[in-house]
Amino acid sequence: MAGGARDGGEDGNTTTATTKVPSPLVGMFRYADRADAALMAVGTVAAVANGMSEPLMTVVFSSVIECFGTGDDATVLHRVSKKKEIP
Q: Residue ranges of region Disordered (predicted)?
């Protein structure tokens, strides 16, 4: 091959691949403005609410199931509708 710079040819010069260094976490937010910060805050709150929904539904569902397991059939509907607050 002519020019041999890439393959370590006759002049001995070789090109090296540049390695990409990952940027620090703070560097990703260098150009964020107030609107971006507000959107990230809203996203964080929404993610926390989404993560809490399944455990809270487990507590509510267990409370409703507990009503079915105790007492007679005549009062089950009354006790289920009464379970509006979490114990």
A: 1-21
pLDDT in tens, 16-52: 667 776 678 778 788 889 999 999 999 999 999 999 9
Q: How many CB atoms lie within 10 A of CB 67?
A: 17
Asked if residue 9 is part of any domain, the answer here is: no
For the whole model, what pTM was predicted? 0.47
Alpha helices in 1-87 (DSSP H): 25-28, 34-69, 76-82
Angstrom distance (rounded) from CA 71 to CA 78 = 11
**In total, how many domains does the chain have?**
1
